[in-house]
Amino acid sequence: MDETQLWHQHHLASWLRLAATLRTEGWETQVTCTAAPVQVDGALPNGERFYFRARHSDVSLGIGGDDPADIPEWEASEPHQEASYLPAVDGEAIIRRLARRYLEEHRH
């Protein structure tokens, strides 16, 4: 196995571990792509559907709406220099930060 294959195998495994960790916290998660762009979708612990995407130099989280990947009710993003190949450790910090921001803005 060459270096690129090893990197991709490690990258995929780290995203799958993150998805499993989030599921233990009540999230529904599915990693649909791990590179160019990184994509995860599912539902937050409160049941609201989300779509997380990292592409080029932007990482975004869309929540709610009929299709959060297309026209979410709420969306926020953060810059990241290598978003298309976002490491799961960076992705975890960003998805948690943006989800927390959403929940803080939508408390009643």
Automatic annotation (TrEMBL):
Organism whose genome encodes this protein: Micromonospora pallida
Source species taxonomy: Bacteria, Bacillati, Actinomycetota, Actinomycetes, Micromonosporales
Protein name: Uncharacterized protein
Domain of life: Bacteria
